[in-house]
Amino acid sequence: KNQVEQSPQSLIILEGKNCTLQCNYTVSPFSNLRWYKQDTGRGPVSLTIMTFSENTKSNGRYTATLDADTKQSSLHITASQLSDSASYICVVNTGFQKLVFGTGTRLLVSP
Amino acid sequence: SQTIHQWPATLVQPVGSPLSLECTVEGTSNPNLYWYRQAAGRGLQLLFYSVGIGQISSEVPQNLSASRPQDRQFILSSKKLLLSDSGFYLCAWTRTATIYNEQFFGPGTRLTVL
To answer: What is the mean pLDDT of residues B44-70?
Structure first.
């Protein structure tokens, strides 16, 4: 069964600190993996995308990694800001039209 | 640039009442369109997707239906709402024939069924 599991479910960090969110997937076939940020009450917005051959991808203070052998991905947030408070969703694309969504990690950045 | 609109933003409906949520996309043509539901504390669940006018694929059997009367309009409906239909409904679009399949999401509709 295609699954995407994220950990932790929720996380509280102090403003300015770094954090890392995890995503483990059992999805086949694999086309690409994308991290989305979803602010409360809003639609998700794409942060990064990685294909099978990419190990890391950065978008400002967000850096995603992918280990296709172990089927793991992480999202590292550097020097967190209050605006980083959101849910972060890992999504694996198996191919055309088929996406498998994780349940997300809810991040709260505290002042 | 492309934009996606959803309305209403919030909706409170009694059990057994009908439902109609609308989604429109601007600035692109022939998009693939999707309806998702996000229950509290849960991940996104794909409900329907459409690759063209009048073409609807259902992912989950339920009392909801979808229609695509125009190229950039996608409607989610129900004849009789259930309590379990409460949730956050998101419409999304993608470009056709793309392997990267980036979903562009609308602002969502918060539906509460009482």
So the answer is: 90
Provide the greatest CA pair distance for chain B: 41
Q: From chain B, which residues contact A within 8 Å (Cβ)?
A: 32, 41-46, 49, 51, 88, 90, 92, 99-103, 105-108, 110
Query: Which of chain A's residues have a Cβ under 8 Å away from the Cβ of B107?
Result: 42-43
- Asked if B43 lies within 8 A of A102 by C-beta distance, the reply is yes
CA distances from A28 to A1, B48, B61 (A): 9, 22, 24
Q: Can you read off the two tokens belonging to residue B61?
A: 């059997």
Chain B residues near residue A99 by CB distance under 8 angstroms: 46, 101, 103
Element (H, E) at A19: strand A19-26
At A11 the pLDDT is 97
pLDDT tens digits along B81-110: 999 999 999 999 998 766 667 889 999 999
Distance from CA of A4 to the nearest CA of B (A): 10
Cα separation, B63 vs B98, whole angstroms? 31
Which candidate, B20, B10, B29, B34, places its Cα nearest to that of B104?
B34
Tokens of A33: 């993996």
Beta bridge partners of B38: B44, B88
Q: Closest Cα partner for B43 from A64, A59, A74, A87?
A: A87
